[in-house]
TrEMBL record:
This is HicA protein. GO terms for molecular function: mRNA binding. It comes from the Bacteria. The lineage of its organism: Bacteria, Pseudomonadati, Pseudomonadota, Gammaproteobacteria, Oceanospirillales. It holds the Pfam family HicA_toxin. It comes from Isoalcanivorax pacificus W11-5. InterPro entries: HicA_mRNA_interferase.
Length: 84
């Protein structure tokens, strides 16, 4: 995991929830942790990490993840046993 991915991990777990975190940084973090991406229809994407599956919709037309998406990413990482 590089320094940008470590800062993304800290941002996902920060409080209050970030409103300016780019979704591609979250996806990069998931990939660095070893998650498998499964593309779905449209903007839907699923990630599998340590036996845990998380389903997300990529934000569009904006590139920033909405606060609920960041909270969902945090919950997914917590369930998979990942903490900062």
């Amino acid at each position: 995991m590089n320094s940008k991915q470590r800062s993304t991990l800290k941002a996902v777990f920060s409080s209050p929830t970030s409103k300016s975190l780019e979704w591609k940084r979250i996806e990069s973090l998931f990939a660095a942790l070893g998650a498998n991406a499964i593309e779905g229809n449209g903007s839907r994407v699923r990630f599998e990490l340590n036996g845990v599956v998380g389903t997300f919709h990529r934000p569009h037309p904006d590139k920033e993840a909405k606060p609920y998406q960041v909270r969902d990413a945090r919950a997914f990482l917590e369930q998979a046993g990942v903490t900062p």
